[in-house]
Records
---
Amino acid sequence: MAFSASGLTRVGGDSNGSLWMYTSADSIADVNTTNYFNNAANMLAVRDLIIVRDTNVPTTNFVTVLSNTGTVVDVSDGTAVAETDGD
């Protein structure tokens, strides 16, 4: 699938960086590819943190913006959030 701007919301931040929430049916394997966030290049900065929520297969990952040339955005592979319930 493709990036959808309606799924990206800035949660907070300051001049040192921003925290974003991105909700999509896309898997983390799709989201963490170079170019996925290109249409958000004017919003995302290097070292910004994005919480990625996959609504298709309920998973959550943290990714960071590794590079942004102004047109090409690359994010990290993602760190999975454990979503278990042992009771």
---
Amino acid sequence: MPERTLRPSVINFQADRLEEAAKQRRPGYLEAVRAASTVVSDDLWQMPLEDYQRIREEYSYGGPGTELKSLLRKIGIKATPNCQCNQRAKVMDARGCDWCEENIETICEWIKEESSKRGMLFVKSAVKLMVRHAIRRARAVASKEYTDG
């Protein structure tokens, strides 16, 4: 019988590497990691794997899909194992801001479809504003002008 490997429930990291890692992330990353971490020793910190994955995704430089997911997460809408949200966010990131602007109707249809599956209200004008905001944030991040807002 093959040996099963359990995924760790926590991640350990060296405190001195945190500031270097923060340079590769959006502003606020360092504070979020510190808030979610426990100091184990002078140089060793630990955090729950789930928090690490959430923070890593939330503060990564991605693109318009990543930014849209971040905005949706802030209002309590998260990707689930059964939805296409992560796949579609990757498509948006890969194709870029210009494609997303040109295909905002398609993106709105994706969101409408998922809203229907979840039994959520869909307001197209609000969704368009959110998608446009995600595109602006992605462009700002790409030009290093990003501030959370």
---
Amino acid sequence: MIVIDIDKAKAITKDRLRAERTPLLAAQDVAFQRALESGSDTAAIVAEKQRLRDVTSLVDSCTTTDELKALSCVAPTPEPVVEPVVEPAPEPTPEPIPAPEGEA
């Protein structure tokens, strides 16, 4: 029978997440600098960097290896909001004008 040491699995998962987030944090650092240079708002960048830093704390609440495997640094993408397509009402077609009687 194989017994998995959950504490060891948590440590391995934290190491995996740290390696996964390193290039993501570097990319956010570049985006932050560019935003500062252009005077753009940096709030979203700061929030994303904090989310990446906090990802390893999610490991502590996991109780199974499946939960550990599911953790990732990739930001969850929101489901796209699909607006219903409203078809325009068709243009009314004019009634054909009947030909006067006797003409063919």
---
Amino acid sequence: MIGENLQKITNKYPRILKDLDSDVLVMSEIPEGWIDLVDNLCADLNNLMEEMDPENITNLVVLQVKEKFGSLRFYYHIDTENNSLYQRLKEAIHKAEVTSQTVCQFTGKHGELCMHNRWLMVLCEDKRIELGATKARKELNSL
């Protein structure tokens, strides 16, 4: 079962998220603030696949999209002999995962890693105050 936000993205990028109904794929909900980030990542991956694999011979399977320790995780498997395509896909995914570490999971605004009820999450200052979270870097340094 996947969340509504992720379902909308899978409908836009069937080549990237084509195995949505397979038993292999484990997807969860995308935090509201990261929808654009994941949407842009899928657009980038889709464009790379169309540009570098027009014959559609490369098998890219997205296994999981989720938040873990306050960061986007995008797990995938790719079956290709095209090393350039593999490297460019890997770089695009890494860039989105790093970017997620500075994007509030609720608002999409600039955020920092925070701790709320022992959970790490990226929050903008307004959301951090609203939730009563602490900046994780300070929290982690005191452990």
